[in-house]
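Reviewers of the previous submission asked for a worked example of the structure-prediction workflow described in the proposal, so we include one complete record here. The input consisted solely of the amino acid sequence. No template or homolog information was supplied to the procedure at any stage.
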Amino acid sequence: MDATYLLNVPGVKKKILHGGCGQLPTFQDGSKITFHFQTLKDDFERTVIDDSRESGIPMEIIVGKMFKMEVWETLLTSMRIREVAEFWCDAVHTGMYALVSKGMRRIAEGKDPLEGQKHRCGMGNMFDYHSTGYEDLDELQRTPQPLIFIMELFKVDDPSAYKRDTWAMSKEEKLAAVPVLHSEGNRLVLHKKYREAAEKYQEAVICLRNLQAKEKPWEEDWLKLQNLMTPLMLNYCQCQLELGEYYEVLEHTTEILQKNHENAKAYFKRAKAHAAVWNEKEARNDFLQAAQLDPSMAAAAKKEMKILGERMRKKHKELLCSNYEPFPSPLT
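From that input alone, the workflow returned the following structure tokens.
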């Protein structure tokens, strides 16, 4: 089919490339829509900007959850299962695409999509022309323009038929999920399932970070969320110590200490990570700082420094021995 349809939205045109199956699905608030998409410029070459098939992971959005590209909900709810359609959208609908694409690309790269995000509303972000880190998206930010979206709809899940990801939860649901995830993590630690426990703590932190991103930094609500987040991050770091992920521990404990330089537990865990990667001076400084901030940790810090000293002496001895050539065997 190549007929062009005008949806009941100004500045949007639809062309069905492959007809779908059955009746139009029932879309309601909370329905999860799974689909693949391709984004193209409206130029002679139809330059491809993004293609979800390259990552091999379909895109998902939740109906009624104020996805930044609001027009996508309009496009998808006009489709049948397995339908492939091409949509032309005027610039009035595409101004947020650069930020949406940046987040999706960061997720595909295994990075935090919220990292470095400023506290401001969507309109504020739309007119923030600082670099997205991607040259083609910077161009879209500077010059909003019509875009073409080719979409294939795979399935529509009823709200009760799936476990919602944290990003799809309401504020109240996220706050309620945090203590549950915390308890699950603690239970897994008791069974020495550190990797699974770390995932629970991380999911709880993500819930809180999503909420914190909507608050003004260092104000009361932001600080309350930070206080809830810190013990979860410390538990996560303890799991990473058990798993031998020392550089990750260094990164996250340093992040904690940048926000609260009097957290003795963060100093102690960072000291253990420094010791594990042979940073003797940094480890001793952190152990001493932990003991100074919390005298109840002094004995443990002293014990760890003794173990560190023994490890360092053994290492120096091994290095010294390796610098000498072995005595040659006598000729027979």
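The chain is about 50% helix and 15% strand. We consider this example representative of the routine output the project will generate in years two and three.
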